[in-house]
Structure formats: structure tokens, C-alpha cells
UniProtKB/TrEMBL annotation:
The lineage of its organism: Bacteria, Bacillati, Actinomycetota, Actinomycetes, Micrococcales. InterPro entries: Glyco_trans_1, Glyco_trans_4-like_N. Residues 190-320 form the Glycosyl transferase family domain. Keywords: Glycosyltransferase, Transferase. It comes from the Bacteria. It comes from Terrabacter terrigena. SUPFAM superfamilies: UDP-Glycosyltransferase/glycogen phosphorylase. Pfam families: Glyco_transf_4 (PF13439), Glycos_transf_1 (PF00534). Residues 19-179 form the Glycosyltransferase subfamily 4-like N-terminal domain. This is Glycosyltransferase family 4 protein.
């Protein structure tokens, strides 16, 4: 089986990952190769050399002076991305050695052009509908007849959010439980993720202070204005910002914490941080948004309504701190592993590739 994986071009596929999409793409490519699958990855410049990536890149765009004087010209960066995906899709039309294309980008062209390819295209939906992608998915989903377009979603919640335009099978994200190893715990609380308003680390600070516990925050600053206005003033002896940590450093953070707080103020498509924490044996207290409730179950965490009071959240922290860390680890191994995710995707591939499915 030869699988082509198309990554998103916004960020390189390299650790520390910018987000769940990049993590999934990296782990999927490596996991497939461990099963002796031939994998070709198209991704942004700067991606992990170990993935043997073909870059999704276009040299500085040549445009005539006449074209550049068009007052309706879109930003050049947008044009470069557009042409990178266009060139890739056109090149795949002539490939006879590829069995399936797995599209993990957020761009509309791989979906819009899928029916021009000789092989099936599986697109994983990583986010809620977006203005660019939703119409492409809608048009590419015929109400009858055959199509090369097929869709998966990272959670049942995400699949439902797209159900008005397409039907997507569910393949939950996975984390490498061989790397996210259990720790002995501690008394501090942890929070990790992109530091942006929709991830709401300021909520975690309020919860931690109400619980009377120290909080350690890690992650890239995705919104500098938000960080300076809402997070930096809260830092002090009881709230520490650790920066954007590598995987092994996050393993130490989670493994040495009593509880990990997950505080989305948007509907998380999946909630990778919660899975990583559980694999380290650390229970989770999470605001019940999006796909989190599909794997944060009683016994390994506490789900809270989004409008919960800080006092109620503090009580939840104490309940979670008493949960069995070994049970958290066992649940992650059974339900949240990369191995399970890769097996699930291989099953989907086989169902879409006629000659493989028949064999």
C-alpha cells in the first residue's frame, strides 16, 4: 500500500507541535511506516527531516507588473499557498503508484480536486466548518453517485458539526503512549496548549487559585496581546509560565502534577492534551466542550459545565486528585493510543481501496 499524506501548510510538522493537526500527521506517518506502509508526506518547509518530506512550497511568486496592479489582488502569501496545493493536486493526477491520498490540510483544493484523481482521497476533518472548506466539502459530496472524496472526523462531535454537508466516519486522534509515560504525580496543577483566548488559560488560573494549588502553564503564545493582557499579570509564585515545551518536558510536567486542567471556551474537536495527561497517569478536570466527553470518562477525570463557578471547579480538582493514576494510564493505552489510531485508519484505507479491500 502506498499512502500520500497531505499536511497543512501553515506550520511545519515538527516537534514541539503547533497543535493537534500537526501531531496527528507526524504520528500517522511514522505509525504507518512502522507497519511497512509506503508513505509520502507533503508538508511545510521546516518539517521533521525524519519524515522525508516533500515541501509544500512555491518559490517567490512571479507575477507581471500588470497582474500586480490589480486592485482586487489577494495577499501574495495566500496565492503561494493556493498554487502549492494546486501544483500538488495536478501532479497526483498522473501518479499510478499511489493507492490512497490522506488529506490532513485545511485547504479547499485537495477536496475540490479529488474527483480529478485516479485514487480515493480521505480528508480528515480536524476543525469545525470553516468558510473556505465547508463549501468545497458540500460540493464534493454528491447526493448520489460515486466520488473519490471520503471523510473522517477526529471525534463524533466534529462529525456532527459537519453533518449538514457530509457524512464522516469517526477516527479518534491518538498519542504515543510509549513516549507519554506515567509519572508519580505531585501537588501542582498543569495546563498546556496554545495560549489563545479560546483555550482560556486564564480560567485555569482562577480554578487553581480557588483550589489553593500552584499552577504550571506551558505552550506557545499564539496571541501575544491576549498573553500580555490576561496571562502575564497573573504570573507569580503560584502561577508559572514554562514556555513552549518539548515532548519530554511535557511528559515531566504532566507526570509530576496532581491534575491537568483543560479549559476550552470553544468546542474542542478532540482535546489531545487530555489524552496526553491521562497517558502520564494524571487525571483531568475539563470544561465539557466538543469531543472531550468522548474519552474523558468518570474514573479518569471530571467534566464540568462551561459556566461552572471557580468554587465548584476547585471541588472537582480535589475529587480528580484522588482518582487512580494507574486507571488513567490504562484508559489511555486502551482508547487514546497512536497504535489504535493507525489501525483504525488502515481499516478505513482498506475499505476505500478496491484491490486491497478485495484481498
Amino acid at each position: 500500500m502506498h499512502v500520500v499524506i497531505i499536511a497543512a501548510s501553515s506550520y511545519p510538522i515538527v516537534e514541539p507541535f503547533a497543535g493537534g493537526l500537526e501531531s496527528l500527521t507526524w504520528h500517522l506517518a511514522r505509525g504507518l511506516r512502522e507497519r511497512d506502509v509506503d508513505v509520502t508526506v507533503f508538508a511545510a518547509p521546516g518539517s521533521d527531516p525524519g519524515l522525508d518530506v516533500t515541501y509544500l512550497d512555491v518559490p517567490p511568486l512571479w507575477l507581471s507588473q500588470v497582474a500586480r496592479t490589480d486592485v482586487a489582488m489577494v495577499p501574495e502569501a495566500w496565492l503561494r499557498t493556493h498554487h502549492a496545493y494546486l501544483q500538488l493536486m495536478l501532479s497526483l493526477r498522473h501518479r499510478g503508484d499511489v493507492d490512497i491520498v490522506h488529506n490532513n490540510s485545511l485547504h479547499h483544493l485537495p477536496v475540490a480536486m479529488a474527483d480529478s484523481l485516479p485514487m480515493p482521497v480521505l480528508t480528515t476533518l480536524h476543525t469545525p466548518p470553516t468558510p473556505w472548506l465547508e463549501p468545497a466539502v458540500d460540493i464534493a459530496t454528491p447526493r448520489n453517485g460515486r466520488t473519490q472524496n471520503h471523510f473522517a472526523a477526529v471525534s463524533s462531535h466534529t462529525a456532527r458539526s459537519w453533518s449538514h454537508v457530509t457524512r464522516a466516519r469517526v477516527v479518534h486522534n491518538g498519542i504515543d503512549v510509549r513516549r507519554w509515560t506515567p509519572g508519580d504525580g505531585g501537588t501542582d496543577l498543569a495546563w498546556a496548549g496554545r495560549i489563545v483566548p479560546e483555550k482560556a488559560p486564564h480560567r485555569a488560573v482562577a480554578m487553581a487559585r480557588s483550589a489553593g494549588r500552584r499552577l504550571r502553564i506551558a505552550g506557545p503564545v499564539g496571541d501575544r496581546a491576549y498573553f500580555e493582557a490576561r496571562i502575564a499579570p497573573l504570573l507569580g509564585p503560584d502561577v508559572e509560565y514554562l514556555g513552549h515545551l518539548a515532548t519530554h518536558e511535557l511528559v515531566t510536567l504532566f507526570g509530576s502534577s496532581a491534575v491537568t486542567l483543560v479549559t476550552p471556551e470553544w468546542d474542542e474537536p478532540y482535546g489531545l492534551v487530555a489524552a496526553e495527561s491521562l497517558s502520564c497517569g494524571t487525571p483531568v478536570v475539563a470544561l465539557n466542550r466538543g469531543g472531550l466527553g468522548e474519552f474523558v470518562h468518570p474514573g479518569v477525570g471530571v467534566l464540568l459545565p462551561p459556566g461552572v463557578s471557580d468554587q465548584s471547579a476547585a471541588q472537582a480538582v480535589e475529587r480528580a486528585a484522588g482518582l487512580d493514576r494507574a486507571m488513567c494510564r490504562a484508559h489511555a493505552e486502551a482508547s487514546c493510543s497512536v497504535s489504535r489510531m493507525v489501525d483504525d485508519y488502515l481499516s478505513v484505507y482498506r475499505s476505500l481501496i478496491p484491490q486491497v479491500g478485495a484481498a
